[in-house]
Amino acid sequence: MQKMLSMYGLFASKVKRFPNVTQISSLLSVVRRMSGDMTGKKLVWVDCEMTGLDVNADRLLEVAVIVTNGNLDTIRQLGPYVIQTSKQILDQMNDWCVKTHNESGLVKQCLESELTVEEVDKKLFEAMNELNISNSLLAGNSVSK
Which residues form the Exonuclease domain (predicted)? Predict the structure, then answer.
């Protein structure tokens, strides 16, 4: 339980909020049910910040990944990687994103970043290959498909 809370805390601390207890309890329940099947498996925890919620239209601003074993021990932490984003793109965000990403400092970091989305993709791809991740559980808040 403590490892799971710490894992969520790493992601949640960036936006200064914590997921509700129901989400954590549900996730723990799933992990416990799968624990017999998780021997030798890895979990890939992903957290993304975007310019909005439409994956077809909005852009990635930041990506963080934590890879754990089936016991939730951290194997590797990648990022957070802040992606270079133009003012023109940032100016198109909705009010919630503008407020949240300005308050957290992410907008400023995106304007100053030299990392392109292609470079971040390459870093994550190389790390997944290095860790020999081919059949792992993708985990995180609102992660699906």
Answer: 44-143
